[in-house]
Design a protein that fits this description.
Radius of gyration: 21 Å
Number of domains: 2
Largest sheet: 7 strands, mixed
Number of helices: 10
Strand order of the largest sheet: 11-10-9-12-13-14-15
Distance between the termini: 31 Å
Order of helices and strands: EHEEEEHEHEEHEHEEEHEHEHEHH
Structural class: alpha/beta
Oligomer: single chain
Helix content: 25-40%
Strand content: 15-25%
Shape: globular
Amino acid sequence: MQNGPHNSNGGFTLVPLPKFERQAHRISKIIEEKVHKPTQDTPVDIALPKWGIRPSGEPFVQLSNNHISGHDVMVLAGGSGTPETLIQIMLILAYVKGRHARRISLVTGYFPLSRSDKDEGSLELALPGLLYRLFQTSCGNSIDRIIVPDPHSPQIVMAGETGIITPVSMMRRLLAQALGDAEAAGLEHICLLFPDDGAHKTFAKPVHTILSAMGMEHVPIFTAYKRRYNSHTTQHLGLVTDIESNKALLPNSLVITLDDELATGGTNISVAKALKEIHGVSAIWAAATHGVLCGNAIEQFNSEDCPIDRVYITDTIPVHERGLNQLIEKDRLRVVSWIPDLANILFYHHWNMNIRAMR
């Protein structure tokens, strides 16, 4: 039972989908331990749905109105847009609406189907707009906000009404960790690489901000240019940089690649191989917000001849129970948690403060 000060949105409640329960408990602990004004003490309730499959194969969910009715409900979800994930999100949105939540928000750590952000040839259509309408329809158009860290395409905000889809940047935290690790290891010759122009447009601003804050404005930045034939096939063509002489700094350097996600890892590995073979790069770290790591990505990154020496991801997609322990133990994979940032974001949202101001 919550005993905090009055909030017009109701008491703060987290409703995690399967595999997001740990994140909910961590968020609750961080928020409740924050030192605030007495008028902003924020108890956090967690409502855990019970999921199951009927003998007919149909999914079901059980969720009472405890901590839901009259509350400010925030659903924790995300991940690849599998049928199971999409159905779970829509079912839980319908339930929190049916249990009379006062306000409903959705956190999609990784926005489902986010790579389907544009038409593919003559056979596939862009899907974020459809997904947004499905989510809203599930709860009677009651979603107040959808929080999306580092979406695959900035245009995803246009899939919904103005101000509903709110992107937040995790690249600052991710890059600061990688640069700090490089400095601690005594690696002085560092270059940054955007794997394509899209990554450059998305991350150039936060990257320059963190470099300036760390006194590392001198670090050269490159952008790879490639020809993409479809969502599965690309051809690496070369590198561009603001200062042509930067290319002389590549040999024997550490190159940190920056992107929004790592899926199969195929493109990243092929670019890394070219950097080492053609430009004489000594080490490559790949930093990406979302560790989708599908297909044979884990096997590729675990291989002794993988040209990528280390991978940095956040836990926007929960990392437990995904077979990543060996990569972590070998220090091939480092996970930078976004939960402290998310806790602050949700606290700001609950108290109607400007999320963009805190970013």
